[in-house]
Amino acid sequence: MQVALQHCPRHLFSQYLTNNDTRDTWIWCSTSSGIFSTKSVRLLLQTETTQNWKALWSPYIPLKWSIHLWRMVQNLIPVDVTIQAKGVSLCSMCSCCLNHEEESLQHLFFYSDIANKVWTDLSVFLQFNNNGITNISRSVYSFLTRPEITTSAGRLQRCIFMAVIWEIWCSRNRARFQGKGMSAQHIINRSWLSVQAIWISANFQRIPQIWSEALRQPSKDEVNRDTMAPKVAKWFTPPKGRLKLNVDGAFKMTTNEAGGGGILRDHKGNMSCAFAKPYYHLKSSLAAEAFALRDGLLMCCNKGVTEVQVETDSLNLLQIVTG
Ligand SMILES: [Zn+2]
């Protein structure tokens, strides 16, 4: 600072200086606190066009739906035609129609027999014309940014729309890799169940009768007794002054591969540190979960963090540790 004062009039500095005796420190201008955070970098890197896409992301929308739809508008969903376009020669035969057609993005999600039945069945709720789609990203964007999308009914429209896109893809993969036939009714039921879970958890107020009736229909549960109803899981920040450690481990029995990871975050959700690593010679997912917990706690110890909340999705491990 003394050097700066030699070359620059003091009045130019006065608004920045509080005490001439304090040591100079770096200030990260992109946060109000001046402290660096990875979150602020993400905000900096967002361009105008991605701002337009904020319709894809919302606290009440499952991340997997947002990411899936984002991949769709970027043409990154690996349907046959997209893979062919990357130079891989393969013969395409869709899983969605009796008279098999070439599997393109438009076909699978909007034009096929299955997709058409799903969109037609939901048209009274969505007012979405699946047959008029030529440019997917433009159509999806204009649907998700309709002015009414900010109302309660609009939010539900957005939910069911994204749920359907996700469920069509899941159904296609079950057909393709597990030999289970695609069913429009199953896609519709699964979508409604997910939206039901979100509606209850997010507590949307003042929704039109047509929606509340559809969401309350008990038949949705009856039809799906064999499939697990989705639940909404949320991540909550720890109280101020504490950090939260989330750990997870995974194990693949067919190849004996295992790995684990963890992330430490503060009360604003900012990341303090994280790790991810492979594990060898394990025999169960519980072991992978336990190793991830051990390494997460070690990471905290190495950082000198003693006050920490720990979260794991393994009930088994939780009971062993706390018991
Ligand atoms: Zn088809």
Automatic annotation (TrEMBL):
Gene3D superfamilies: Ribonuclease H-like superfamily/Ribonuclease H (3.30.420.10). It comes from Colocasia esculenta (Wild taro). This is RNase H type-1 domain-containing protein. It comes from the Eukaryota. GO terms for molecular function: nucleic acid binding; RNA-DNA hybrid ribonuclease activity. InterPro entries: RNase_H-like, RNase_H-like_dom_plant, RNaseH-like_sf, RNaseH_domain, RNaseH_sf, RVT-Znf. Residues 246-323 form the RNase H type-1 domain. Residues 37-119 form the Reverse transcriptase zinc-binding domain. Pfam families: RVT_3, zf-RVT.
